[in-house]
Automatic annotation (TrEMBL):
Native organism: Thlaspi arvense
Keywords for this protein: Signal
Signal peptide: 1-25
Lineage summary: Eukaryota, Viridiplantae, Streptophyta, Embryophyta, Tracheophyta
InterPro entries attached to this UniProt entry: At4g14100-like
Protein name listed in UniProt: Uncharacterized protein
């Protein structure tokens, strides 16, 4: 006696119904971003490896990166919420430079207006 298989149309219908039920489930809610945290990042810039200690502090409006090159020195990068950034070293050269980076709504307005013009 032969085993009778269900018609393919019924199987496809059941799979589609199950898919609709999964798609209508509640979307996940992301966790709130912590106001302060520390992260250890390993970056690979086409073979040049770096280890970055990131200290993020939203409460005090700053972001501090300690960048250790694989075979080089340590660079410190202190960034403030107003766009001011100080990049310095504490080795023999004791170099320091600052930059004013555009942040917030003015940056987004400039980026979007540039995208509309192209």
């Amino acid at each position: 006696m032969a085993i009778r298989r269900p018609p393919r149309l019924i199987v496809i219908f059941l799979v589609l119904i199950a898919g609709v039920q999964f798609a209508t489930a509640d979307d996940p809610v992301p966790a709130t971003w912590p106001h302060q945290f520390h992260a250890l990042l390993f970056m690979n810039y086409s073979g040049d490896l770096s280890m970055i200690n990131l200290w993020y502090d939203w409460t005090n409006g700053r972001n501090f990166n300690i960048i250790q090159e694989q075979l080089g020195g340590i660079t410190y990068d202190l960034e403030w919420n107003n766009g001011t950034s100080f990049v310095y070293t504490l080795d023999e050269s004791k170099s320091c430079r600052s930059a004013q980076l555009e942040v917030g709504p003015s940056l987004y307005a400039r980026l979007f207006s540039r995208a509309e013009n192209t």
